[in-house]
Amino acid sequence: MPAGYRHRSQTVFVQCRELGSLWRNGIRRSAQGIAEREEMMNVQNTIENTNTETMQERAKRIAPIIRAEAEESERIGTMTAKSVAAMKEAGLFWMLVPESVGGYGAPMTDCMQAWEEIGAADGSAGWSLMANSSGTAAAYAYCSDEAVVEMFGTAQNPKRPIMAGMLGPGGAGKETDTGIDGSGNYKFGSGSLHADWLGAGMFLMDEKIMRKLPDGSPAVRVCWLPRDQVEFDTNWDVLGLKGTGSVDYRLTDVTIPHGFHHERTDANSPRSWRLYDIGIAGLACAGHTGFVLGVMKRALEEVTRIGFGKKRPAYQTVLGEQQVFRHDFAFHEASYHAARDYTLRFYAETQAYLENGGELTPAMRARFRQNCIYVHKVAEEVVRFCYKMGGSEALRNPSDLGRCMRDMYAATQHIFVDTIALQDIAVPILDEWRALVEENRQA
């Protein structure tokens, strides 16, 4: 953690006190129009970017730029050059790598709030950022010392690379004396079009037989390659998350040197920062959850703006003064804060536990995905309520609230938040509860 970094614990009470100003300030920004947004961009670009800023503050500082670029990002199918440049200037791609290689080593809760801020500005940008920053952390955390120097440089000469890619198995490879030789076809490479290195998962084969880990699951090596070894398709045409550039890509007869690949389930990083012990799955869960908190926040902001901006046909007064709307808004707004506070507390406690020498139990690891799936289910309901209340303004393009709806329901299609996983997640958690029952029975 860099000198002067201000770590702020986020409590329920502070967040609730800030709520009113968050919505009001966000609504005013949305209502000011494109011309005023551009003026804000010019002002924000003059602000000094210091190491005392938290990641959340950096994200807030560039959020007007990301908002202004959202529509163009959707049009071209990936983040605009202006958005990428703003994230680079703010250092957000490297918030989960240490200062020694040009990063910030920020607390996980701070990173999650940064993902939330960017996700609220534009869902696609928030999704891309979480994919890039968590992927960059994974490459740094689990590759060899020599590979890390080649990819990330040194304290005297940091390279600050951006990583992306599909880390699940899309190909197969054979281990040799020099590395892994393999090929593969990969889908959903979010953030790949502005990345320097691409990750790719490969089944490890021994004479056409899939290698197994001690627990019987297949061995999957996450391989990291420079982008010039990857063939991209320009095929990203989807309903939501349109600006993420989640294109397909191919690897053809490549060799990944030893040190540039690692087992996908690795959770014991050779680096000193114990946060990395949450593993790739923990990093992914944190990123997905931070993103979806941002989409919820933006949807609530937009429906509030619409609710007090005009009177709908057949309504005696504006939507925001209707009793049913107020009742339902209060419920869904509470759902957002409950999910957010639960998430931030969970990750703060987990990081403190690891950095105090603790080792995660199977139940603790299961709770990363449990939290992620739960928050997505909450977000589905919150965003759907906002969209329905938005009326025709949420339907006609361009629409910020319509984009929230499309992005939210695109996110729910990711395999990582498929609720069927809760069946397996429940097993170690139930074991923990059963142990508690037995302990109390014997007391």
UniProtKB/TrEMBL annotation:
<feature type="domain" description="Acyl-CoA dehydrogenase C-terminal">
    <location>
        <begin position="287"/>
        <end position="418"/>
    </location>
</feature>
<keyword id="KW-0503">Monooxygenase</keyword>
<dbReference type="Pfam" id="PF08028">
    <property type="entry name" value="Acyl-CoA_dh_2"/>
</dbReference>
<dbReference type="Pfam" id="PF02771">
    <property type="entry name" value="Acyl-CoA_dh_N"/>
</dbReference>
<keyword id="KW-0560">Oxidoreductase</keyword>
<dbReference type="InterPro" id="IPR009100">
    <property type="entry name" value="AcylCoA_DH/oxidase_NM_dom_sf"/>
</dbReference>
<dbReference type="InterPro" id="IPR036250">
    <property type="entry name" value="AcylCo_DH-like_C"/>
</dbReference>
<protein>
    <submittedName>
        <fullName>Flavin-dependent monooxygenase, oxygenase subunit HsaA</fullName>
        <ecNumber>1.14.14.12</ecNumber>
    </submittedName>
</protein>
<dbReference type="InterPro" id="IPR013786">
    <property type="entry name" value="AcylCoA_DH/ox_N"/>
</dbReference>
<dbReference type="InterPro" id="IPR046373">
    <property type="entry name" value="Acyl-CoA_Oxase/DH_mid-dom_sf"/>
</dbReference>
<dbReference type="InterPro" id="IPR037069">
    <property type="entry name" value="AcylCoA_DH/ox_N_sf"/>
</dbReference>
<dbReference type="GO" id="GO:0050660">
    <property type="term" value="F:flavin adenine dinucleotide binding"/>
</dbReference>
<dbReference type="GO" id="GO:0036383">
    <property type="term" value="F:3-hydroxy-9,10-secoandrosta-1,3,5(10)-triene-9,17-dione monooxygenase activity"/>
</dbReference>
<dbReference type="GO" id="GO:0003995">
    <property type="term" value="F:acyl-CoA dehydrogenase activity"/>
</dbReference>
<dbReference type="InterPro" id="IPR013107">
    <property type="entry name" value="Acyl-CoA_DH_C"/>
</dbReference>
<feature type="domain" description="Acyl-CoA dehydrogenase/oxidase N-terminal">
    <location>
        <begin position="60"/>
        <end position="146"/>
    </location>
</feature>
